[in-house]
Amino acid sequence: MKKILLIATGGTIASIEDGNGLVPALGGEELAKYVPEIEGLCDFDVVQPMNIDSTNMRPADWMRIRDEIVRAYDAYDGFVVLHGTDTMAYTAAALSYLVQGSPKPIVLTGSQQPMASPFTDAKLNLYQSLLFACDDRSCDVSVVFGGSVIAGTRARKQRTLSANAFVSVNFPEIALIRGERIVRVGKPVTCTGVAGRPRVYDRMNERVFVLKLTPEMNPSIFGLLKRDYDAVILETFGIGGIPDYGDYQRAIFDWVDSGRTLVVTTQVPEEGCDLGVYEVGRAYAAHGGILLGGDMTTEALVAKTMWALGQTSEAGEIAGLFERVVNWDRAVEG
């Protein structure tokens, strides 16, 4: 029987109503008792590094989850992280970069309704997450939610209320789970790591800002961001449109030429960004030091940029790390 480490961090799945709104209160051991069926599925232990609303989840907390996984890696066959839904996509992406190519599965799940609710989706999500974590073909970081298995770098919360809250963006789902049956429908996933182990990292630079273009936004904002941020992820219009009014080009080139990082993506949810299509984007495609987000999600871009800047401050090395395909995070040519 597989041995799984259950890492409880809070979120809706652990919440109760205290008169002021839902607040995480149940511990991991209590959550497991609500799903007695898991006793026959696997052996498991529980750790509780935090018990917070995922709105408060930040890079230091990603590191705490990462530390629990790395510390216990040799003792377990897989890991299931119970997490709030609001920032789960960020954490799944961050763990994909911090623990790369894990031969053992690292699964994130949560719920739209608290575990104690009579209409909860938490019981099935927890059970199916453990089911997937116990499967011999499972590896790397994924999100299991609402019967879908999504690569950790491709998940996005699409719905605020429905049980099928998460979608896989620009990439097929890894699998569907129907009852106790795992139906693998996407690309075959193999994870060998390095000599059978993941490649692990312990540094991130959280000085990363997401800037969404809006009509008539003043490009002087780039100058205002210099004090507090080392990188900007710029969500452009459409497939990669940047206005040619207001001296955007000067502001953006100045940002990059000052040694800071700029990642260009799109605010359109699907099909990605290409600066070479329109004149309003082509000038930026030819300027050195600007990184292209392609078809990656913004959540993955945030985590990957923080990870890359955590390893080096040299522009060429940052670009090299950024171009590395990790856990299916960007389209692979050919």
UniProtKB/TrEMBL annotation:
Catalytic activity, EC: 3.5.1.1
SUPFAM superfamilies in the cross-refs: Glutaminase/Asparaginase
Chain positions recorded as substrate binding sites: 54, 85-86
Keyword Hydrolase: yes
Entry keyword annotation includes Cell division: no
Catalytic activity: L-asparagine + H2O = L-aspartate + NH4(+)
Domain called Asparaginase/glutaminase C-terminal: residue spans: 207-322
Family statement: Belongs to the asparaginase 1 family.
Name the UniProt record assigns to this protein: asparaginase
Species the sequence originates in: Eggerthella sinensis
